[in-house]
Write a structure and sequence with these properties.
248 residues, alpha/beta, Spore Coat Polysaccharide Biosynthesis Protein SpsA, Chain A, two-stranded antiparallel sheet
Length: 248
């Protein structure tokens, strides 16, 4: 009964997937459309994210699109073939991850907590547990973190003993093991309302760092796998990774 109640509550969330990026660094390996449409084991990478959400009980999805957006719309449609209700938010000019999210949430009319995800990475997360933990902590924002052997490409996230995020370190010069941002977030509405939609703004470099010390920005550990396809080398590993997770 408790699990059923959790799924029902999570089912009220709307997921916003940031899928408008062109993927400049990925172009040597894939340059035929948005990063989220890069094929992995014969499927668009975006499909793995959508299937993950459906299994977690989150069926309302807004795709934040931009570059070659018609490819995504033609493929995903309204989502009914995947058991989803998919809507779209098109940015006419690049607004960054923060601006695109704020624009989409405002257009959708969604109030309260939202789930936001990058469209070029996949983290094996227990969404029910992340949602429950966010509520129990009375968090303003919760971000998923993965432990990796080398944080240099991603930048390092430092937390305290209670899981609060205390510092974001730049990518350069931070080698060795540590925690990294996986691009999966739960945000309360007050965070979204503070993001401007009139210019490009980054969640990672501007919005999240400003929350440190101002509000309850917490971390949530990723116990399973994590992969992103932002570079050709990581993209080349994506198929093997997805097969190991039995997602292919």
């Amino acid at each position: 009964m408790l699990e059923s109640a959790n799924q029902e509550s999570i089912g009220r969330l709307t997921a916003f997937i940031l899928a408008g990026g062109r993927g400049t660094r990925l172009q040597p390996a894939f340059d035929l459309g948005p990063k989220a449409m890069a094929p992995v084991a014969g499927r668009p990478f975006l499909e793995y994210l959508l299937r993950f959400l459906e299994r977690a009980g989150v069926t309302r999805v807004v795709l934040c699109v931009g570059y070659k957006h018609k490819q995504i719309q033609d493929w995903a449609g309204d989502g009914t073939h995947m058991g989803l209700d998919i809507r779209y938010s098109l940015e006419c000019s690049p607004l960054g991850t923060g601006g695109a999210l704020a624009l989409a949430v405002g257009r959708s009319g969604v109030e309260g907590m939202v789930l936001a995800m990058n469209g070029d990475s996949f983290a094996e997360i227990d969404m029910s547990d992340m949602w429950r933990t966010h509520l129990a902590r009375c968090a303003t924002a919760t971000m998923a973190l993965a432990s990796v052997p080398n944080t240099e490409r991603y930048g390092r996230v430092e937390i305290d003993d209670e899981g609060r995020v205390r510092r974001f370190a730049e990518k350069s010069g931070n080698t060795g093991p540590g925690l990294i941002n996986c691009g999966v977030y739960l945000f309360e509405s007050e965070v979204i309302r503070q993001i401007p939609t009139t210019r490009a703004i980054s969640l990672e470099r501007e919005v999240l760092p400003r929350l440190i010390g101002q509000s309850a920005l917490f971390s949530f550990p990723v116990r399973g796998g994590f992969i992103d396809i932002g570079t050709p080398s990581d993209y080349s590993r994506a198929e093997k990774h997805m097969r190991q997770l039995q997602l292919c």
